[in-house]
Design brief:
By secondary structure, the protein is mostly beta strands. The chain has a domain of 130 residues: Immunoglobulin-like (Sandwich). It is 1% helix and 46% strand. The protein is built from 1 helix and 44 strands. A hairpin with a 2-residue loop joins strand 5 and strand 6.
Length: 612
Amino acid sequence: MKKLRKKRLSALLCLVLTLVFLMGCGAKTETEVSTEGLMDLVVEYTEEDLDSSWDPENAVTIALSGDQGKISGDGAVIDGKDILISQEGTYVVSGTWEGGQIRIEADEKDKVHLVLNGVQLSNSDGPAIYSVTNDKVILTLAEGSINSIKDGSAYTLAEGEDEPDAAVFSKSDLTINGSGNLTVTANYKNGIASKDDLVITGGTLMVTALNDAVKGKDSIAIKDGIFTITALEGDGLQASNSDDAEKGWISIDGGTFTIQAKDDGLQAESLLQANSGSLAVTSSGDALHSNTNMKIAGAKVTIAAGDDALHADASLLVEKGTLKITDSYEGLEAGTITVAGGTIDLTAKDDGFNAAGGNDSSSLAEEAPSKDSFAEQGDYFIKISGGNINVNANGDGIDSNGSIYISGGTLQVNGPTGNGNGALDYDKICEVTGGTLLIAGSSGMAQMPSKDSSQVSVGIYYTTLQKAGTSASLTDETGKTILSFTPEKDYQFVLFSSGDLKTGATYNLLSGDTELTELTVSETITKISQDGTAVTGNTGGMGGKQQDKPAGTEGEPPQGITGGTGERPELPAGVTEGERPEPPEGGTGGDRPEPPAGGMAPPSKTSEAAVE
């Protein structure tokens, strides 16, 4: 169907991520990242990132007490209210420091290992830890230590400057490791920020920030740790480099996350991938957002979102893992959506899956939380080749402003009750060659798969309203149940598709325990009314046209079926509405796509870059 809500397109180049970090002689000292295609970014964490040990005999100790401190060793001095570190080495800090900061100004080739071993740092007019010049800072949370960092609500900055802007701020690469605890309270803007790459391989971190909680401009790579993240006005995790197509990515490779954000839970420019770990995200904006691509490849993610649960402007790929979406405006939204495996259980106030957005005529669309952008590529599609998917949507269940390809997996849809939406909605083709489809919803906008599908599909158009909890079943001539579905909402249309359905076979249609009619599958796409009468009309394409309705159901929606309320959907508890700027002008379109082999937009080039 055609939509009312405008979703303008921004032009985005296809992204090929092949990142290789520079390595020194001997052991690896920089995080190494390599890719072999659009969505295959692999992070190799170095010994330096993982090793939280230190040699006490060669370390500089810094013991703090209020505004006094004692330093044992070379490379650090007390400079007024600041503790100044000026050369490479290991520095072990303990005690309390008030009204100043640990400031690192070393040679650009120096690596500084800063160990927090029971530290309470507070600075009222700037960062509590500020890395100005060096090659890299390794911040270790000592085993068993409890550390806290707090800044003030106003910074004293040089004229014309807007940085530093975080309680822990590094202009160079920053790694956080160890097993201790760190609490960061950021009253000015951001919590932990690196202007380059941010790597976290361990520790228990609680970060509360007025704006963004954790930022790595070029990238964020997280291997392990326990995270409680609160972003009062911004994003939970953010990689913001939009100038370099090979930067601005986030890779979650482990860890346990509890994230609450007024804007997006996680926000990346080029690629957001969740390969492992457990994430619980509550957001007023999108829970997971990428301005280009996104991949779910093994993580367990629980989401309550005021806007989209997962949004990617270009391509979204779910390979494996678990997505439990308890609340969202739209569930999965991207230019192209590919599901090859995993488990998805989602609830959406509007569409469950939405490829490329478009003009949204769902009842909630005028009050949509944001205007989204999509890559200007034209070949929009939803491709499902595996996985277990359960959709409960008030708008369209599965909606593509291009095409749909289903070759495997199990898809169960509890679609809309209002006739202004459809459980299955597409503009071009819906090709079903495999998998199991159990789809229910209203009949006014109901679409069947395309006639060139190779797998049998049977659509039932009911002349009377079927109540929620009433099973719809097909049994064979022996009484054996072939397919059965018990929708969670009232319905007047059911679509069955499975390799177990055969052309020429005869089946019985049951509503609960009541046999309604006998039907014979005469062709691949078979449509009947509940009394066995054939239903004629278009089987799909251009979902905006009302079609495929059995006799007696034209005109007003059947009794008991209503549309949306027109009211703004409620946001998850504890969060408030965030705003997002209007995206640039653009458009949709394109020729009919061929079924993609891999499910993703093809890369335009292969590149290799060294990232400092």
